[in-house]
């Protein structure tokens, strides 16, 4: 498994999965347009060697397909992640425990010495150390993604903070808007770990939070930072589990935070809870610009980096973009834990068009009336799935990954008066359609076949299926019909 980003980039190059661009490109939208076309064409990862004459190369399209994410995580396909997680969660036999309790229990049964983060004294990420007057945020090759963005952003920064109550670490990927050489705005959304640490600090009367912004490290840790883990589950333990070896950490020079030792660039500083500024607009994964909103200010104290660092960026926008593939891997990883919480759930799909929080498709093994609505409430009561706006429930024989089949089942199986459940609750920060900020409506759609006991007076019809004898007859005579085998 790759120790750092450069080792992974060299591996990509050895398999002709990397394309280098030595022509000078602009950090102002040009990279986004190039990456957008690469994702649409399933093109290679890109290394921009000259962005605005900056001597730090920019890496883009790291996660722009299922294949790329699987390469980064060292798995054959996303179902390998499901199998890894299922094997882990199967160690736990607590039917009524929470998602966090299940994951905690499962990790505790592993040989933790193999996957727990390990602290080292010297690290490549501290080969060069700068004070803000020597090297600042404006020296970085940060990009402007879309024309109406408020400025340049760090789009792949791993934001590391700690819960001031119990000192548990949180790692999340949040966009960071650069204001000037020493100030930036951290967009950690409500319900995310960083935001919860902010709330906890305020409750304790603390006005600043030590925060490290990590730009580039091993690809598994970058993905783990994007995973929607329950509070106080260490993302570096997840990375160690996927890597089958520990993530090495080193103490920052100026703040009490530990960061991956093989990171490319570390921005050490504090988030000032007395200094909130307008962040945005920003062209986000919803396909719309998220408007200005108040978020706290990060104030730089020190920068450390490798002698020849790389600068990864992640571009978002109208789906499908990199965030979808990162999220799809998380979906498969978290499914076994969700199935432990609700054994009725067979499979889920969070399609690209739903951009995570807009809708989720769930397959259940239906046994009794009202079961679909019960599952809807279970999902709305589970972690960040509480933000889901629309839940579609179908039967276990429906392929939830096939949107055509799901659409057909919903179209023929629902009576809107009977099978649509309307509710309300917390909504995602980026949901511009909700009537109120962070609060809006929910809808559940029961697309299952109706069974005895469901509120329905008519008998449910038989689904069309061909007799096996006829299928076998046609298979046997296929070539006699004059068809090629390829048409079979």
* Overall CATH architecture of the largest domain: Roll
Shape: globular
Classify the beta-strand content into a percent band: 15-25%
Give the distance, in angstroms, between the N- and C-terminal Cα atoms: 42 Å
> Which structural class do the helices and strands define?
alpha+beta
Please estimate the helix content: 25-40%
| Name of the CATH homologous superfamily of the largest domain | Electron Transport, Fmn-binding Protein, Chain A
Describe the structure.
The protein is α+β, with helices and mostly antiparallel strands and 488 residues long. It folds into 2 domains: 308 residues, Electron Transport, Fmn-binding Protein, Chain A (Pnp Oxidase, Chain A, Roll), CATH 2.30.110; 105 residues, UbiD C-terminal domain-like, CATH 3.40.1670. Helix content is 28%, strand content 24%. β15 and β16 form a beta hairpin. The longest helix has 20 residues. It is globular, with a radius of gyration of 24 Å.
List the helices and strands and how they pair.
Blueprint: H1 5-14, E1 18-21, H2 30-40, E2 45-48, E3 58-60, H3 66-73, H4 78-89, H5 99-108, H6 112-115, E4 118-120, E5 128-130, E6 153-154, E7 158-162, E8 169-173, E9 176-178, E10 183-186, H7 193-203, E11 208-215, H8 219-226, H9 235-243, E12 248-251, E13 258-260, E14 265-279, E15 282-283, E16 289-290, E17 293-305, E18 311-312, H10 322-341, E19 345-349, E20 359-364, H11 371-380, E21 390-395, H12 403-413, H13 416-419, E22 420-426, E23 439-446, H14 468-477
Parallel strand pairs: 1-2, 3-18, 4-12, 20-21, 21-23
Antiparallel strand pairs: 2-3, 5-17, 6-9, 7-8, 7-11, 9-10, 10-17, 11-14, 12-13, 14-17, 15-16, 19-20, 22-23
Helix pairs in contact: 4-10, 8-9
């Amino acid at each position: 498994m790759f120790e750092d980003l450069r080792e992974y980039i060299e591996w990509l190059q050895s398999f002709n999965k990397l394309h280098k661009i030595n022509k000078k490109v602009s950090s102002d939208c040009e990279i986004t347009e190039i990456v957008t076309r690469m994702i649409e064409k399933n093109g290679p990862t890109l290394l921009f060697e000259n962005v605005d004459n900056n001597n730090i190369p920019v890496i883009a399209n790291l996660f722009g397909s299922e294949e790329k994410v699987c390469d980064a995580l060292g798995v054959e396909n996303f179902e390998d992640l499901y199998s890894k997680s299922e094997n882990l969660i199967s160690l736990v036999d607590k039917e009524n425990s929470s998602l966090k309790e299940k994951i905690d229990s499962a990790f505790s049964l592993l040989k933790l010495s193999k996957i727990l983060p390990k602290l080292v004294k010297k690290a490549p990420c501290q080969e060069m150390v700068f004070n803000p007057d020597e090297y600042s945020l404006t020296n970085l090759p940060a990009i402007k993604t879309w024309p109406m963005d408020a400025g340049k952003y760090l789009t792949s920064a791993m934001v590391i903070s700690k819960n001031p109550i119990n000192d548990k670490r949180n790692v999340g990927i949040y966009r960071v808007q650069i204001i000037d050489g020493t100030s930036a705005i951290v967009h950690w959304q409500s319900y995310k770990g960083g935001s919860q640490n902010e709330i906890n600090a305020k409750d304790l009367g603390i006005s600043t939070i030590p925060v490290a912004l990590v730009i580039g490290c091993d690809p598994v840790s970058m993905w783990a930072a994007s995973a929607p883990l329950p509070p106080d589950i260490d993302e570096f333990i997840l990375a160690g589990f996927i890597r089958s070896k520990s993530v090495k950490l080193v103490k920052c020079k100026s703040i009490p935070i530990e960061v991956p030792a093989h990171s490319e660039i570390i921005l050490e500083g504090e988030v000032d809870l007395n200094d909130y500024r307008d962040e945005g607009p920003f062209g986000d994964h919803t396909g719309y610009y998220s408007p200005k909103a108040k978020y706290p200010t990060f104030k730089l104290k020190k920068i450390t980096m490798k002698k020849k660092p790389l600068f990864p960026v992640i571009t978002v926008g109208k789906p499908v973009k990199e965030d979808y593939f990162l999220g799809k891997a998380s979906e498969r990883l978290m499914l076994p834990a969700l199935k432990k919480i609700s054994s009725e759930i067979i499979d889920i799909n969070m399609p690209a068009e739903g951009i995570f929080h807009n809708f989720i498709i769930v397959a259940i093994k239906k046994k009794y009336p009202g079961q679909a609505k019960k599952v809807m409430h279970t999902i709305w009561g589970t972690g960040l799935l509480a933000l889901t706006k629309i839940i579609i429930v179908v039967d276990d024989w429906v392929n939830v990954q096939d949107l055509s089949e799901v659409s057909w089942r919903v179209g023929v199986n629902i009576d809107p008066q009977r099978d649509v459940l309307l509710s309300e609750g917390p909504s995602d920060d980026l949901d511009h359609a909700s009537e109120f900020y962070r609060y809006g409506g929910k809808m559940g759609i029961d697309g299952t076949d109706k069974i005895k006991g469901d509120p329905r007076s008519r008998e449910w019809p038989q689904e069309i299926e061909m007799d096996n004898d006829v299928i076998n007859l046609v298979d046997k005579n296929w070539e006699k019909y004059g068809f090629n085998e390829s048409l079979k």
